[in-house]
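Morning, I've got a small favour to ask if you have a moment. I've dropped the whole record in just underneath, so have a look.
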Amino acid sequence: THSLSLSEKMGRTMKHAGVSVTVTSITDVLAFALGAFTIMPGLRSFCISAAMCIAMIFFLQVSWFVAWLSLDQRRIESHIHGIMLTKTANTDMEVSDEEKRVDKSEVSLGKRV
């Protein structure tokens, strides 16, 4: 992934995570929208507010969050400190082929894959 450009990395990220975020947000908005048809006024107000807030959060996630994430990644790749905004030492080290290989059983939280 070191050879990919930042836009390609962000595209892969959104392709992978964007689908689940979208599906979850849509189902949550629909569930709370259905709750807006209840006869209890307090619950109706809550469901309308929750549906609107989840929809707004979704749009912020796919716009602002992605934009700030890409800006932060650009800062990291430029070796700029996150707080001090000064150049940091280049700590990239070569990784051997053996270190790149990871046993899936170690990563899958104890479940055998």
